[in-house]
Amino acid sequence: MAISIDWGTKVISVPKADTTLVTMSPFEIRELNINTFRLALRDLEDDMEGIPFLHTHNHNTTVTVGGVTLARVVEIINGYTITFENGNYAVNLVGANSNIGDVVNLNSVSVRVANSAGLTELNLAASVWDELVANHLTAGTTGKALSDAGSAGNPWSSAVTGNTDPGTFGELVGKKMLTVAKFLGLK
């Protein structure tokens, strides 16, 4: 069974088989990719049976503005509603922002909407972690803390010279141990 539309009642039916299984334990969770869903709706709209009827949805694709990609939006329109095949499971809606939660016909299925403020999940992490630390050196910020940490994650790659503040390990290595090394003729 595939996604179908009852054109007379404007009910879009989504069979469980058209969702992706995420987990079965402790209870069944499935996923519906909204972009894949809207493409299936477009296919039904341009079939001979669907052509005379009103469109089921509007679609705004992803848009990149100032280096930030905003999520796609799918809006179910013209009085269409959505019914998921009844059963004891949950469906996570992913891949776009939508109003599906507002037009779903209630039954035993838990429909989980995860609309964002516009950023796509895929580019959010990249936008944060690929940002230059040098652009974020305001006192009290995480960027400043990361910059101040320097090579704390790998102290062996850290230069000893200039790292000899009083009371630090750098002072011990830089002043005391290098003096011993010179004395022993190792330096």
Task: Describe the protein's architecture and organization.
This protein is elongated. The model has no long low-confidence stretch (mean pLDDT 83). By secondary structure, the protein is of the alpha/beta class. The strands form four sheets. It has a four-stranded mixed sheet. Strands 1-2-9 form a three-stranded mixed sheet, with no helix packed on it. It has five helices and twelve strands. β1 (4-6) and β2 (11-14) form a beta hairpin. It has helices spanning 34-45, 100-103, 121-129, 142-149, 169-183, and strands spanning 4-6, 11-14, 20-23, 29-33, 57-60, 63-65, 68-70, 73-76, 81-84, 90-94, 97-98, 110-112. It has two domains: 4-125, no CATH class; 147-187, no CATH class. The N and C termini lie far apart (78 Å). Helix content is 26%, strand content 24%.
